[in-house]
Amino acid sequence: MDRYARQRLVASVAAEFQVTADTTYQELARQLGAVWTNRAQRRVAIRFTRLPHSHITGATALLADGSYLVICAASPRWYFRLQVLLHEFAHDLLGHEHITLDRGAGLQLLVPTLLPKMARFVAGRTTFTAAEEDEAETVADELFAVLTEDRVVSESTASGLENLRRLRETLEH
Q1: Per DSSP, which regions of 53-132 are E strands?
Q2: Cα separations (Å) of 62 from 102, 106, 122, 171?
Q3: Model confidence over 7-21: pLDDT tens digits?
Q4: Reported pTM
Q5: Which residues of 57-88 are buried (b: 16+ CB within 10 A; e: fewer)?
Q6: What are phi and psi of 23, to 5 degrees?
Q7: Is 48 helix (H, G, I), strand (E, B) or coil?
Q8: Taking the alpha carbons of 18, 19, 23, 28 in that order, is the dihedral positive or negative?
Q9: C-alpha to C-alpha distance for 66 and 68, rounded to whole angstroms
């Protein structure tokens, strides 16, 4: 996909979000599920869990019933979760083929302790090329930038920035 087509795609997807200056990363992640469901015209189930390997941050599979299962690392930081979800969504936007799980695998998902194993299983069978991974990462990064460019600083971040400002002023004198 060339740069102009990518910019049009990112702009059209971003327009589907309800973003204000105080929209949180968590709210954007919630909205992403709805946007993805609407775009894909299928149910998208997002599950967060601790993943055993740091190199696996997310995985997506097409279930036998036609719905998507997205497994995402349960980071305490919602901006990280959002970035992982956007990367998984970008694969779908770009038409990359997700693996399909049979009905038995879908039923196993009812047991929460199996999610980390399922994520490793899905990630291990995903056949995205390096070029597809790079393309999805680029789209996800650009979408993240557009969705978060007008964010206001939260109170917890504001106090940290105030501390940095005071430190800078002290060092300048």
Answers
A1: 58-63, 68-73, 99-101
A2: 9, 9, 10, 55
A3: 999 999 999 999 998
A4: 0.79
A5: bbbbbbbeeeebbbbbbebeebbebbbbbbbb
A6: -65, 130
A7: strand
A8: positive
A9: 7
